[in-house]
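Retro notes, item 3 of 5
We never archived the inputs for the manganese (II) ion complex last cycle. Fixing that now. Sequence and ligand:
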Amino acid sequence: MIIILKPEITTESPEFEKLKDYLAQFEGIQIHVAEYQGMTRKVIEVHLIGDTQKIPLEVVQSLPGVEKAIRVSSKYRQIGRHGELEPIGFDYRGLHFDQNSFHVFVGLCAVDTYENTETIFKALKENGVRTARMGAYKPRTSPYDFQGHGKECLPWLFELAGKYDIAVIAMEVLAPHHIDEIWEALEQTGHPTGVMLQIGTRNAQNFELLKAVGSQQEFPILYKRGMGLTIEESLNACEYIASEGNHNIVFCLRGVRTHLGDPHRNLVDFGHVPVIKRLTKLPVCVDPSHPIGSRVQAPDGIKDIYHVAAQGVIAGANMVLVEFHPVPEKALCDGPQALYLEELPCFLEYLERAREAYLDMRNIVARHTMQQMAPKP
Ligand code: PEP
Ligand code: MN
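Structure as it came back at the time:
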């Protein structure tokens, strides 16, 4: 059972004490409090763990300080929607992330040189983009490939981000100690930017890593669907993160591995955007770079990466994560799929139009639904 407290009630309020006293009579019930800070309000949820069947819902619902009580049958106890209030999302570094927001994270697959990084940040600033992607720790198939500069590049990377007003960088972590290294570099440089910790597809079921990112509250998480995992398995992995206390999670679709996706690198799975939004409260990101894997273009002159990015946005995605490089031919990782930096204004305008189309389409459906429901004369 999940109990949502009224907006004015906190865990210090006498009403919360009364609720706890009431629940204390039921043996074996554990209480776990989850707090969500949205743009307009804070939501405090009291999660009851144990055999809650014997607790009468109507009584709980009528207690002072309780806005709503819900019986949770679903396995996604923390991240699930449970038909409750509109998901409130989270704020980070002055930006808001929820199932209605929209952000484009642009940057290098792997940070290589200072110059390339500065060129990217400068282009982002010129185009009004404050969200970047930058890999410092790279999981590579071959041990002989470039694994990223690791913690060595973090201080100058963060300083450069601050110089160009980048609010958040999505950065993959491969091991719990990478979180500490990122924190130390931010401390050392005076927190000029923020970091969203990315869990890559190869670590989608690395439960110790999931617990490590979940048990810290500083950084939000960008969780990438496992390339060979079902939606249910990947959502359970997010539940691992949330059950450790961190609910600031964005779920990223990045394609699934099957030869049925050939000649693309992976099979595009952006049809699952509405599925994730329906099953969970999480904002949804799409990554068009990794499922396509190259800069091929259709006879209409539009690259496949653009096509599928727009498909994700039209399906209601809240975030796009995409790889660009000033000189893709020289990139040390994923060069073939990196878009040229010169095409950034085009890509952004293209996505903006797709987002507007999605919002228009949502209005069309709402208007027709209202008309269908209106009483017939
Ligand atoms: C990446 O974002 O560069 C990356 C390695 O992604 P994925 O984990 O989806 O392959
Ligand atoms: Mn990559």
